[in-house]
Every structure is written in structure tokens, then in C-alpha cells.
């Protein structure tokens, strides 16, 4: 049976924000915003170039266009080195969920190409790959949410008697790799350790779970290509050594190389967050439970709320301001107290007041700031058109400032907790995100334009010729 829009493209951290019933509407709105962003970026670029004039470069600092074999490195060496480094990083770092269809089992490519499910799965993968190319900070944010959810799942399972439950198993459950096989019943898919525990109690089976055996079976299903990881490591090492060596020898670096450094840095961050997430798992694992072992402790009823001021002894005169300051600071980053019942039934879907959203907003702002600072590092880049440099500077400032302002708006909306204020502030944040995307696309176009007027010394390899001894794809 073909997959529908309800069953494809929904990853756990997205599903916690967007209702499945409204997904098609969100995709349509996102498509319109993407079309508007691309069109606006192209119009801004062409208007700036149209009203500019050719740049006159001094003879002491000659600038050249596309270069072939010039005795050092050429334009294609720079382009291919940056592209292969970024592509290999994204390919090995992005961890997908388990496919929800069996199109990958089809033996021949003609059958796959005729399968509707195959194209839907491919769309999901390509969308994440494109995020890694054009907006790596969004993948950092996505990986952060999945990591926080998985870590919370580990703590919850440990509290309920599953001491061997690991972060890998939490990721596996969250990505749809586990299904429960109860005696006399069909396999039941689970999306978290919460759901697994709920199934054990719902059917009142006195059973438990062999976490170690499950983790060994999961490791056997994981398809991590060691050769690709070795190639990726060599690409990253060689690329960063090249940039550092040119800086030490006072040789200019192409703007695209500086920006790729920030992109690779973001890639390493979300690869670290997904370090324990199984890679390239295409088949689900059936969890079979043993009815002869003891059952985990039952879920407790929600405890009545206790006033924090009444539960704690009254603070002293000098410690009262410090306690108040600490309470405000920790409320942004610490998960609020939840009973077992609340965790199972009330905290599956995340919302704007969740501490994960506030932490994610700050992390997204930091990742965007790193990318923006990489563009700011090329502040004096020159273009063949006089309006190229001012446009680069304005967009670089926007990429640095807008994420900080957007994060502040999201945090403010979460603290004020008034419906109309939250809606207004969210619209302001969305508008700033659109402007941010426009600035990023303009900068991307200008990166390609910069190859028409790079300093001649960018292609000089004097003092860094030893880099050719390190194997890399070029």
C-alpha cells in the first residue's frame, strides 16, 4: 500500500511541533516561503549588480577570474575541494529514521523508480541533505532536539528499572527501529522508551527487556561504512590544514573556503549529537519479551503540586537575591519536575514553553552566529562590481544579528505567556527568519560571483605544496 503524506517525512523532533493532520498545510506554506525567498534573493542581487559599476583593482594587488592550470592550484581545485569536503561530511553525519515502507527491498532499479514509496523516501533524504548544504544550523537544531529527547528517555527508563537501557536504544526507539512482539498478538511499533514501557504495563504482562541483547542486534543492523568515514576524516584534516597553512604563510584564502570551515564545524556538532544514533538502519527489530521475568515498577499517579516556597526553609537575608537569580536562570535550561504520569501522557509533544525549545533557540542562534562570523571574516572581499562588497557586508551583518534577535524574541514569548503577545512575537520571529534566509541566499550567490575577482595570490601554493602529500578527493 503506497505511503501517504501522513506516513512519510515525519521525523520525531518535527512531529513534536507539527501535527500530522496539518503537515500538508505546513509544507505548502513552507514551499511558498521558499519560493518567495529565492525570488527575492535573485531580485536583490540583480538590482545591486545593475546599479553598480566595474571595480578598478590596484596594480599592486591584482585580481583574476577563473584560472586553469597556473602552476599552483586552479579554480576547480578550490571548488572541488570545498564541495567534496562538505558532501562527504553531510553524507556520513546525517542519520535518517528507519524507512516506513519496503521500497528499499526492491531488487531492480526499474521497480524502485516506478515505486511511489521510493520517491517519497528519497524526498525525505534529499531534503535533509539540502539542509546540510544550505542551512547546516537547522540540522544542528534538529539533532539537538533528538538528542535531548533520547537523553530524557534514558533517564526515565533507568528510573523504571531498565538499568541497561542506553542512549543508542533511545535513539533506535525514537527513529522507529523497534517493534514489540507480545505473545499471541501482532507486532506493535513504538516510538520511544515511554511507549515501550507503556505497552509492558498496558497488557499487564510480568515481563522485562534484555537491553544488552537488543543493543547487540541493533549494532549488527547498523550499516556504518568505515571506508567512507576514513575518507571523510582525511578530507576534513586536509581541508583545515590547508586553510591554516595558508594563513600561517600569509597567503589569501578564498571566501568559499572560509565559509566551508563554518559549515564543517556545524557538521561536526550534529554528528556529535547523533554519535549514538544508529546509522543507515533499514529494517526494524522485533522486541520479544520474556513473560517469566519480573515486571518493571508501575507508573505512579501524578503527585499533588507542592509550593516550592513552603517546601523549602525560608532563605536568609543575604541569600534571598541569589536564590531568586538562580531560580530564574535555571528555569531556562533545567527540565521542570514531572511525575511519571505526566511524562508518559503529557510531555510527548513539545511546546513553546518547553525548556528544550528555549535551549534549542539559543543553540540555533549560536550555530547561526558561527556561520555569520565566517562571512564577517571575509569583510574586505572584493567583487568585479562596486555594489558587491556593500551587499556582502549588509547581508553578513544580517546573518550575525538576526539569529540573536530571533532567539531573544522566542525566549521572551515563552516567558510572557500571553496568547496575543506570543502570536505577535512569533510572527516577528518568522519574518526575521525569512529575512535571514534571503541574506543567506544572497551571500551564496555572491560566493559564486567572487570567483570572477579573487586575488591572484589565492592560487599561489608557495610554502604549502606539502599539502599534496595528504590524500584527498579533488
Describe this entry's structure for a reader.
With 474 residues, this protein is mostly helical. It is built from 17 helices and five strands. The strands form two sheets. It has a three-stranded mixed beta sheet with strand order 3-2-4, with helices on one face. β2 (178-181) and β3 (188-189) form a beta hairpin. α3 (75-93) packs across α10, α5 (116-134) packs across α6 (136-159) and α6 packs across α7 (167-174). The protein is globular and about 85 Å long. 29% of the residues are buried.
What's a quick, concise take on this entry?
The chain has 474 residues and is mostly helical. The chain has helices spanning 12-15, 23-50, 75-93, 109-114, 116-134, 136-159, 167-174, 193-202, 211-221, 226-248, 255-273, 308-311, 320-333, 340-345, 355-376, 388-416, 419-450; strands at 63-64, 178-181, 188-189, 285-288, 454-455. Strands 3-2-4 form a 3-stranded mixed sheet, with helices on one face. Strands 1-5 form a two-stranded antiparallel ribbon.
Largest sheet: 3 strands, mixed
Briefly note the structural class of the backbone: mainly alpha
Q: Give the helix proportion (percent range).
A: 55-70%
Number of strand segments: 5
Low-confidence segments: 1-13, 293-313, 330-352
Q: Shape, please?
A: globular
Q: Into which percentage range does the β-strand content fall? A: under 5%
Helix count from the secondary structure assignment: 17
* Rg measurement, Å: 26 Å
Strand order across the largest sheet: 3-2-4
Mean pLDDT: 75
